[in-house]
Amino acid sequence: MVTIYDIAKKANVSAMTVSRVINKSGKISDETKKKVEAVIKELNYIPNNSARNLITNKTKILSLMVTDITNPFFTNVARGAEDKAMQMGYQLLLCNSDENVEKEAKYMEMLISTRTDGVLIAPANDSSKRNIRNLSKHGIPFVLIDRNIQDLECDQVLSDNETTTRKLMEHLISQGHKNIAIINGPLEVSTARERYQAYIDTLKIHGIPLNRNLVMESEFRDSDVSSAIHHLLELPESERPTAIFATNNFIGMSTMKTLKKLKIKVPEGIAIVSYDGIPNYTESESILTVAEQPAYNFGYLGIQLLIERIEGTAPEKARKIVLPADIHIRASSIHKIE
Amino acid sequence: MVTIYDIAKKANVSAMTVSRVINKSGKISDETKKKVEAVIKELNYIPNNSARNLITNKTKILSLMVTDITNPFFTNVARGAEDKAMQMGYQLLLCNSDENVEKEAKYMEMLISTRTDGVLIAPANDSSKRNIRNLSKHGIPFVLIDRNIQDLECDQVLSDNETTTRKLMEHLISQGHKNIAIINGPLEVSTARERYQAYIDTLKIHGIPLNRNLVMESEFRDSDVSSAIHHLLELPESERPTAIFATNNFIGMSTMKTLKKLKIKVPEGIAIVSYDGIPNYTESESILTVAEQPAYNFGYLGIQLLIERIEGTAPEKARKIVLPADIHIRASSIHKIE
DNA sequence: CTGTTAGCGCATTCAA
DNA sequence: TTGAATGCGCTAACAG
User: Which segments constitute the HTH lacI-type domain (chains A, B) (predicted)?
Assistant: First the structure.
């Protein structure tokens, strides 16, 4: 392995001078600088970050913890995160928690061991708090995206769940729906709680009584909503939902699939609105009404806040960015009923 | 920061003993082992990998270089890679080259600096060879996925482009198509070359003369195929394509969009078959006939080969895994013509 | 502007 | 079974 000493010897300078040239620190004469740079190129020298980290306590490695990169929402988060990280000279480690706090904990240990400079986290659920505290205990900054955690004061990039949910619900209500079911993720996830609360609030505002039979809980990942839907369909005629509000993309997709299997027409039989976009690859295909969140910006801005925190350019007070979603009304919900 | 010396002092042993407990190396009495482990837990000690790397020359960090993580194909590659890496105790760095050799080169430098243990690469194109040689020069093992590089002997996980292309083409031919256009990626990418060659060969086998006017080149990313399609539509009636073979997902999607904009019916006006699946999220939506590659396995197996190479359990000879694709015949190509 | 010394946290080597 | 000395490659602090 080529080291700064090899460079130093060949260039007839000290190792320190080589170090200074590499880091552009201190004053170096143009002459020696050029000489050193020539040797570096000649020997194809690339600094060893491990050695550097040991002294500087900086790895220039950031980490992204998502629940599942194959969720298109998180795919775009990752892309935004990576772009900003690269732009700022950082690399990005990818972690999938699978909504599992234990797996998340294991990752956190590895990240701490790696001495990552900071972590952008979409926490599995409220119990992730312990894992995050562990990070903090080791002096590693973090920023939350998508999901917040109760009683945890920190930088966050979140979605405006209240407004967005209200818009989706009011769209359904404007179509004449009164029996609107919600198929939600687990309530220990903040986004599930907020969307549920906004669901309740919107019904109330519009004088529609809340029917607990229409409130279903599923998973945000590996969601199989068929039992929930069977349950809904077995309700007496007067309670049976004419519309379903799915609180994330996987739930929305699973709902579409299940209704198709049951040969229930969308939107005539049951209308659907869903949170999150699924990529509208070919335009001709999408029929699902969705609230599309600016996923790329979650990652991009999240990394920006994180780097500001790491490099000490952030204000001491925690910052909270709340982003709006784009509502795309499509065929799955366009059908007026009495 | 807590170090092994802090642990050693508190446990009344030497630092070396602590190191041995952590690494499960050498013989340690049960008693001291328990004592040390208790102190480690108490002080919440986590080893510093930078220090460890400096000695062992192992980072337990693997890297994945793809052209764009938002391409669903690579999203699944990443997921497979991450799963296998995690299972084997490695972390995964994510890099997007954007099909750009210079950006790829910059990443390579960072990866070398980080002393990644190995890299799983979908190279931008044949010119990536220089970047890969740079890796090798620094003793970093690598495995190619999806795309190979001419005259580069190394472990690879590739797709059976010949068989798959032939199946797609013969499906079109069986529907009566003779004027079949191909919209391809740049020929400096191996997959583009192989799919083109198989396109030519299949035509030949079936006695259909190759018409150069039906051969279009676009991009695998940011593909705007509208000019290509306009060109195809301006051909005289006798040459005008009745079917299009798109050689990757982005090209396939762009083709669908463009035809829709031009109000050309698929498959009646023009039939389409495409390489790569686009995730069939809601089942009801997909109409595109595709050859779906086992993306997850590209990542999973690629990392497996890579780790075997790193840990010295691989045979010296380069290995080449060729995976088949699943053909999904859908509406976009089901329409017999004269 | 340049060099010397020291030490980051840990594992390898050798000795006990 | 345990410990002491040494050095991985680099930079911070100081000296010149």
Answer: 2-56
